[in-house]
Design goal:
The protein is α/β, with parallel strands linked by helices. It contains seven helices and nine strands; from the N terminus they run ααβαβαββββαβββαα. The chain folds into two domains: about 130 residues, no CATH class; about 100 residues, Arc Repressor Mutant, subunit A (Orthogonal Bundle), CATH 1.10.10.
């Protein structure tokens, strides 16, 4: 199994699906029922597993973003439904390189000359595909504003409306529209998107006068999106180092 190939293919498929819809709405999935967590441990999944599980939950229209391995379900006295399809996740395991003495295999991390990182797959099932699990309510996270980001957005003077389902800057109105803050899994994600749109706002003819005539997929559009991403990143760089 070529795990890296499978992950890359899954990500490309997500990108293509997003392009076909004309927008990406992963914050809807995250905001509706939180980030993917392990039902038993209540710990959030990390790395590319977040993307893979969010995408799977969004594609299937699942009501809960809680997952278990087959073994974990069995240990809880539950049973995976017949025909249920698991979602692949990955973890990194350090393995000794062939021909390397055991003396140089410690400590086991990716900087150790005698060790090599190996991606290992695992499969998890959504709680909707498992019978016999007790109902467990997961408290919804509360939104905690980032003071610096709020001040920055307010000081800009931009017209920003929070509460929709999409994030975009409308040139004709010179206005920014954002999903409600609660749709984002973490406050930092909400501000990253808002600052991205604020950078688009800075290009209005009355300000920096950038060209907004590019269409989706062409170089002008791609360049403007790059500018917006850099604008968002610069704020967090300033916050971290300023």
């Amino acid at each position: 199994m070529d795990i890296r190939h499978d992950i890359t293919s899954a990500i490309i498929d997500l990108i293509e699906q997003g392009a076909a819809r004309g927008e990406a709405c992963l914050w809807d999935a995250a905001g509706r029922f939180g980030m993917p967590i392990n039902y038993r441990t209540k710990c959030e999944y990390s790395g590319v597993n977040v993307l893979l599980l969010l995408a799977a939950a969004h594609a299937r229209g699942l009501e809960r973003n809680e997952w278990l391995t087959f073994k974990q379900a069995s240990e809880l006295g539950a049973k995976v439904k017949k025909g249920a399809k698991g979602v692949m996740g990955v973890f990194c395991k350090m393995l000794p390189k062939k021909g390397v003495p055991e003396a140089v295999q410690e400590p086991q991390d990716d900087t150790t000359p005698g060790m090599a990182a190996m991606l290992k797959p695992f499969w998890v099932f959504n709680v909707a595909d498992i019978d016999g699990l007790p109902e467990v309510s997961v408290p919804q996270p509360t939104f905690e504003p980032m003071v610096e980001a709020e001040r920055f957005l307010q000081a800009s003077g931009a017209n920003i409306t929070w509460g929709g389902t999409r994030a975009f800057y409308r040139v004709s109105e010179d206005a920014i529209y954002m999903p409600s803050r609660e749709r984002f899994s973490k406050p930092v994600n909400a501000y990253a998107v808002a600052l991205h749109e604020l950078t688009h706002w800075s290009g209005h003819a009355s300000r920096l006068g950038r060209d907004f005539t590019g269409r989706f997929g062409d170089e002008a559009y791609a360049f403007e999106e790059l500018v917006a991403e850099l604008g968002s990143a610069f704020f967090f760089w300033w916050r971290a180092w300023g």
